[in-house]
Design a protein that fits this description.
heterodimer; A: alpha+beta; Butyryl-Coa Dehydrogenase, subunit A, domain 1; Butyryl-CoA Dehydrogenase, subunit A, domain 2; Butyryl-CoA Dehydrogenase, subunit A, domain 3; 3 domains; 4-stranded antiparallel sheet; 3-stranded mixed sheet; disordered N terminus; B: alpha/beta; Rossmann fold; two-stranded antiparallel ribbon; 6 helices; 25% strand; globular; electron transport (chain B); electron transfer activity (chain B); Rossmann-like_a/b/a_fold (chain B); ETF_a/b_N (chain B)
Chain lengths: 395, 260
């Protein structure tokens, strides 16, 4: 019963300062999911330290598990720019859940970008649907910012590697089915590192106790311990020795995602504040009438918008594979996570004593956003990357 | 089986809705426009039937150009194509004229087995259009469905009204209107959103569906809105001071309102 078709107007080209129709629809859908399925439970999940795997599976049906993964392998085939919109929107419901989903996406992306078709077919469909969750294992107890010094060893034995070592601060550890693990297969330093995909039910893999954390309580953070874990050589992504390159390539996108999660959390805190100052009275007037609060809110909105614009710029640069993408991503991560934390903290202040209570959800956002200034490269490392780029240009 | 879903773009229930002073029609500029929530459920039900029986889902919408956003939402959920009847002449059409236009638009499609509609829109709330469309098509109407089953030959629903629940059946083709209890609509997937813009949408004028401009619109509407006034502000409710008889008084109040 096909009806006669008429041409529809082409979507106008995206301006760097506005979104096209598709992007608005994607953002709106992610925001709706966050508002309806995540936000109502976020404080409870934080209090109970509950990792809502069922809700993640639901999110998988929307295509959130493989936002920028090839459609042939179950992904949504969107851009990094689109993913920044999605992770910000999800983070308005809960930054912790959004951040976990962004890590899961990075794991899938590493397999998509560096795996062969057989490997992609094997792991990506179930990761994209979030039927299986992914964890990323780079950091070790003795190797954080200096990731090139990692010590987890993979020794070749026939068609297998035998893996021994400990990975630290691993998001989703114990719940995930797929672990992308950076291991040392060769010499000391960055050039001796390779990347293996390890199934969560492999013999010899075990998990440390759940870390007690300031925030990010709605996702488990544990050590992953490898004791003589035999991993097929067929599970290696790319050649031996390119692991550090894969890790570095993942970081630009990872930084954008974490920045976007800070924007979303802070936006939710600002929105709560706007509601609060319109309702709360003091000295006979609504507190929104006080200029001190108006100015504070104006600054919060400005700081957030500035960070968002820089993040969008960095995301566009990453999509275009521009030569300054790494520096822009570092700038965006530094600014979005610092501004995001500051805005959330101001929002708590605006709420006064209520802001300090768990029930209002403000203190949770502040605790969640604090770690964004540390992970995916500390904000000091961001400054190192930015200044290195600057100084090289001068010489 | 081929399923048509009737959809309508309405002002967001959460925003302030106004009528224009000049002709008492909806002031569309004053509120955010969305796909009516009941239509999302109608689309969901059509998609479930398609997933079970195969076939195609076509969205039929009457509304101004802007209503293409509502159509897009339905397509991103998974509908296959759309017919958008959009014509200046339709402005101010009442329920009868709307039903005529929709029935005529359905008539431009081949071999439709089932039409699914929401039982009433959140803006006009006449709740009459689905029944009128069925009448004009000469098809059985199964209204107020809280559950729908079809095997491709016939359709069976649970019809819920104040009087109770009845199971009603009809052979296809037929029209079903659904209530908000029918299902929980899915979220569009990102792939669905990106695919939506590639799906065929045919935009038809009043003439294209075989009607003439003087049969539709405010000027020739069988019913006319004579006057309209904003809803009065909410007044304070009844206060019951509990002097030992509070519980009894509340029950008396509720039973007076026929709520218990």
């Amino acid at each position: 019963m096909a009806a006669p078709t008429t041409a529809r107007p082409e979507t106008p080209p995206a301006s760097p300062f506005s979104l096209n129709e598709d992007q608005r629809a994607i953002q709106e859908t992610a925001r709706e999911f966050a508002t309806e399925r995540i936000a109502p439970h976020a404080v409870q999940w934080d209090q109970d330290k509950h990792f809502p795997v069922d809700v993640l599976r639901e999110a998988g049906e929307l295509g959130i598990g493989g936002v920028y993964i090839d459609e042939r392998f179950g992904g949504s085939g969107l851009s990094r720019f689109d993913s920044a919109l999605i992770f910000e929107a999800l983070a308005t419901g809960c930054p912790t859940i959004s951040a976990y989903i962004s890590i899961h996406n990075m794991v899938a992306w590493m397999i998509d970008a560096y795996g062969d078709d057989e490997q992609r077919q094997r792991w990506l469909p179930s990761l994209c649907s979030m039927e299986r969750l992914g964890s990323y294992c780079l950091t070790e107890p003795e190797a954080g910012s200096d990731a090139g010094a990692l010590q987890t060893r993979a020794v070749r034995d026939g068609d297998h590697y035998v893996v021994n070592g400990v990975k630290q601060f691993i998001s989703g550890a114990g719940s995930s089915g797929v672990y992308v693990v950076m291991v040392r297969t060769g010499q000391e330093g960055p050039k001796g590192i390779s990347t293996l995909v390890v199934d969560g039910d492999s013999e010899g893999i075990s998990f440390g106790p759940e870390e007690h954390k300031m925030g990010w309580n709605a996702q488990p953070t544990r050590q992953v311990v490898f004791s003589d874990v035999r991993v097929p050589v067929a599970n290696r992504l790319g050649e031996e020795g390119i692991g550090f390159r894969i890790a570095m390539a993942g970081l630009d996108g990872g930084r954008l995602s974490i920045g976007a999660c800070s924007l979303g959390g802070a936006q939710a805190a600002l929105d709560k504040s706007l509601d609060y100052v319109r309702e709360r009275s003091a000295f006979g007037v609504k507190i929104g009438e006080f200029q001190t609060l108006q100015f504070k809110l104006a600054d919060m909105a400005t700081e957030l918008e500035a960070a968002r614009m820089l993040l969008w710029r960095a995301a566009s640069a990453l999509d275009a594979k521009a030569s300054d993408a790494t520096r822009l991503c570092a700038m965006a991560k530094r600014m979005a996570t610092d501004n995001g934390f500051a805005v959330a903290n101001e929002a708590l202040q605006i709420h006064g004593g209520y802001g300090y209570l768990a029930e209002y959800g403000l203190e949770k956002i502040v605790r969640d956003l604090r770690v964004h200034q540390i992970l995916e490269g500390t904000n000091e490392i961001m400054r190192l990357i930015i200044s290195r780029g600057l100084l090289e240009q001068q010489s | 089986m081929n399923i048509v879903v009737l959809v309508k773009q309405v002002p967001d229930t959460w925003s302030e809705r106004k009528l224009s002073d000049a002709d008492h029609t909806l002031d569309r500029a004053s509120a955010d426009a969305v796909l009516d929530e009941i239509n999302e459920r109608a689309v969901e039900e059509a998609l479930l039937a398609k997933e079970a029986q195969g076939g195609e889902v076509t969205v039929v919408c009457m509304g101004p150009e802007r209503a293409n956003e509502a159509i897009r939402k339905a397509l991103s959920m998974g509908a296959d194509s759309a017919v958008h009847v959009s014509d200046e002449a339709l402005h101010g059409s009442d329920a009868v004229q709307t039903a005529r236009t929709l029935a005529a638009a359905i008539g431009t499609l081949e071999s439709v087995d089932l039409v699914i509609a929401g039982n009433e829109s959140t803006d006009g709330r006449a709740g009459a259009v689905p029944a009128m469309v069925a009448e004009l098509l000469g098809w059985p109407q199964l209204t107020y469905a809280r559950k729908l089953d079809t095997d491709g030959q016939s359709v069976s629903i649970e019809r819920e009204s104040d009087a109770g629940v009845a199971t009603v059946e009809a052979n296809l083709p037929a029209l079903v209107s659904v209530t908000e209890k029918i299902n929980e609509p899915r979220y569009p997937s990102f792939k669905g959103i990106m695919a939506a813009k590639k799906k065929p949408v045919s935009t038809l004028s009043v003439a294209d569906v075989g009607l003439s401009a003087d049969e539709v619109g405010l000027g020739s509407a069988p019913t006319q809105v004579v006057s309209s006034a904003p809803a009065p502000p909410k007044e304070a409710g009844v206060k019951v001071t509990d002097e030992g008889e509070g519980g009894v008084q509340i029950v008396e109040f509720l039973s007076g309102q026929k709520l218990v």
